[in-house]
UniProtKB/TrEMBL annotation, chains A, B, C:
One of its GO terms (molecular function) is magnesium ion binding. ATP binds at residues 122, 168. Catalyzes the phosphorylation of the hydroxyl group of 4-methyl-5-beta-hydroxyethylthiazole (THZ). Its EC number is 2.7.1.50. Belongs to the Thz kinase family. Pathway: Cofactor biosynthesis; thiamine diphosphate biosynthesis; 4-methyl-5-(2-phosphoethyl)-thiazole from 5-(2-hydroxyethyl)-4-methylthiazole: step 1/1. This is Hydroxyethylthiazole kinase. Pfam families: HK.
Amino acid sequence: MDIKTHIHEAFAALENTTPLIHHITNYVTVNECANVVLAIGASPIMASEISEVAQMVGFAQALVLNIGTANTQSIEAMLEAGRAANAQGIPVVLDPVGVGATTFRRQSVARLLEQIRFSVIRGNMAEMKTLAGLETKSSGVDSLEDESDALSIAQGLAKKLNCVIAITGKEDVVCDGTHAYTLCNGDEALRSVTGTGCMSSSLIGSFLGATNNPLLSAILGISTMSLAGELADKSKGMGTFRISLFDRISKMNASLVLEKARIYLKG
Amino acid sequence: MDIKTHIHEAFAALENTTPLIHHITNYVTVNECANVVLAIGASPIMASEISEVAQMVGFAQALVLNIGTANTQSIEAMLEAGRAANAQGIPVVLDPVGVGATTFRRQSVARLLEQIRFSVIRGNMAEMKTLAGLETKSSGVDSLEDESDALSIAQGLAKKLNCVIAITGKEDVVCDGTHAYTLCNGDEALRSVTGTGCMSSSLIGSFLGATNNPLLSAILGISTMSLAGELADKSKGMGTFRISLFDRISKMNASLVLEKARIYLKG
Amino acid sequence: MDIKTHIHEAFAALENTTPLIHHITNYVTVNECANVVLAIGASPIMASEISEVAQMVGFAQALVLNIGTANTQSIEAMLEAGRAANAQGIPVVLDPVGVGATTFRRQSVARLLEQIRFSVIRGNMAEMKTLAGLETKSSGVDSLEDESDALSIAQGLAKKLNCVIAITGKEDVVCDGTHAYTLCNGDEALRSVTGTGCMSSSLIGSFLGATNNPLLSAILGISTMSLAGELADKSKGMGTFRISLFDRISKMNASLVLEKARIYLKG
C-alpha cells in the first residue's frame, strides 16, 4: 500500500462519517481524549459501566482501551467491551500505559491480549518491550529505553500479536508484520504535556473508525499529533502550547499531512 | 413572569450568595463543570462517595446529577443525594446524558425520576424523546433527531414530570408546563468541544442555587453558554475557542444577556 | 536553615532528577495536577488500583494523597500506598480537601494520620482547624475562616503531627514545628480556578521528590503557584488566566523566586 495515496481518502472518510469512538480510558487524560476526537472530526463516547459497555460499543465504529488508571472493575469492562467489539467486527485499539510497572498491569494486559483481537497497539518503547517479553528499565509510565531496535521489536510483535504495532518515541515505528514505516515528525515539547500518548491512541481510533485500515490509521493518528506538536506555539509556555496543540489538530487536513509528514517505508 | 425583569436580580443573587453547587457527574467533563461554576460566580463541590453525599448536599444550594459516565455505584450515590436534597428543599438538576443508548442508562434514569423530584431536566432532543417514551435514532450521546417538535415534547414532558424541561439544540426550548420559551442564540462551534451540554446543566444549577427559580435558571444557564459560544474566538481552532468560552462566561453579566439574548415566549 | 540559599539547589535538583510523583487524587483536578508536575519539571504517575499502588509507589520519589473525591476504595489504596512509601522512605504529602465537611472525610483522614507518617500536610484554614480539633464554619471545600491565628495553629499542628504544616490563604503559613514562615505572594484570581490548591500540593510533592526537604518544598511549592498567579494574564477572563498560569509555572525558576517571593521567617 502506498500510504500517501490514501491520506485524502482517510480525512474525507472522517468528515463524511463522523465515526463514534468508544473509550474505556484513564481519568487523567479522558477530557483531552474526548476533545482530540472532536478536534479531528470524530465523536467520542466514554462509558465504563460493565453492564452497558457491550451495548454501547455496538453504536461505535472503533473502541479504544487505555489502562492508564485501570482498576479491577475497568479491566472487566474492557474485556466485556472488547469481546463485543470483536464479535461485531468493530476495530479495537490498545494503549498499554505503563504495562511494565506493576504486576497488575502486566496481568491485565495479558488477559486483554488473550481475549481480544486488537487492530492497533500503540505504546512507548518500555511498554512494547514489556509486551515482547524483553527486559526494561521502566520507571512508571515514562520510557527510558534505547530506541534503536524499535523496528525489529515492532516487526516481531506485529507478527506475534497479529496486529499493527506503533512504537512512539523520538522516531516512531509503525508495522503491520509485513510493512514497516518510520515517522520522523514531532517535538520534544509533546513530552511536557500529559496525555499526548493517550491522545495519539484516540486519534488512531478516530481514523480507524473512519477507514477500518489499521496501518493507515496508526500512521495518521501519530503523524497528526507529531505535526501539531511541531506547528504549535511553544513561545509562551506549556499552557499555551497545550491549547495551540488542539488548535492545530482541529485544523489538520490531508494536504498539510502530505506536505509536512515525514513517513518512510522501511521494510 | 416576564423573564427579562428578573435577569439583573439573578446575576446579583449569584454575586451576593456564591451558592455551593454539589455535583455527582461524569469523569470526562467534571473539571470543565467545576470551572464553569466558578466562572459564573458560584462554588462547585464534587463528591460521590455514597456514605457522604447526603451530608455533603446539606451544605449546597443546588445539586446537579449527570449520568455521562454513571456506574451502578454512582447511581446509588445520586439516589441518596437526590433524596436528601428533596428532603431539605435543595433544588436538583438532571442531565440524562445518552439515556437512550443503553438499558443501564434507561433503567437508571427511570429510578432517578421515580425517587427524586427534579427542578430542571436538561438534555438534547434524543435524550428528551427517550424520557417521553418516543422512538429515537440515538447513536451514543449525540442527537440525530428532527427538532421541529421540541416545543410540544417539552410541554408534554414538563407536565408529566412536573418540572422545567430544557431541550437544547439549534434552537433551545425551555418549558415549565405553563410557559414555554425558545432561545435562539448559540454557535455550531459549541458542538466541537466536549462538555458544553454538561456545562450548561452546571450553569443552570448555579443560577438555581442563587435564585431557586427553575424556569429563569434554565433560561439563563443555557443563554450564558450560547452567548459565550457566539462571542468566543473561533479563528484559531478549537483549543483557543474552548479557552475563550471560559473567558466569556467569566465576563457574562445581566446587561450583556439583556442586550444579546434572543429569548422568545412561545406559549 | 536560611531558605533562600537552598532555592537554586532545589530547582537544580528538579532539573537533574526529574522525580516521579505518584498521586492518588481526585478526578476533578487530576489532569491539572499531572500537568503542573510536568510544568515544574517532574514526572507524574497517577495510579489508584489497590493491588498495584504499593508496587507503583516504589518507583516514585514522592507520593501525594488528595481526598477531594475520595471514596472507600481509594482511601484503602491511599493507606496501602502510604504505608509502602513510609517503609521505603519515600516522602508523602497530604491534601485533606474538605476534611471538615463530612464524617466520611474526617474518619478517613483520621485513619490516614494514624497509619501514615506525612512529610507535609497542606490545606486551607478550615481544613487545618478541623485537623487541630477546632470549631469551623466549613461549607464544603472552601474556607470561611478568620486567618489571623494561622501561625499558632500551624505551630501546634506541626508539633502534634510531627510534620510540616502549610496553611494556604491570603497569607500562607508554613511551619515545621521549629521554624515558621509566612508567604505573602498570590492573587485573588487563583480562587477563580478549580484545583489551585490541589496543584500547590502537587508542586510541593514535586520539590519534595527532588530535595527530600519538606519545609523548603512546602515553601517553594506554594510560592511557585502564588507567583505564577501574580504574573499570569488576568485581562481576558478565567480561561486565559488558567492557561497563563501553566505558562508561568513552566517558566518558573530559582532567580525569579528569589527576586519576587516574599518569604518571611516568623519564629
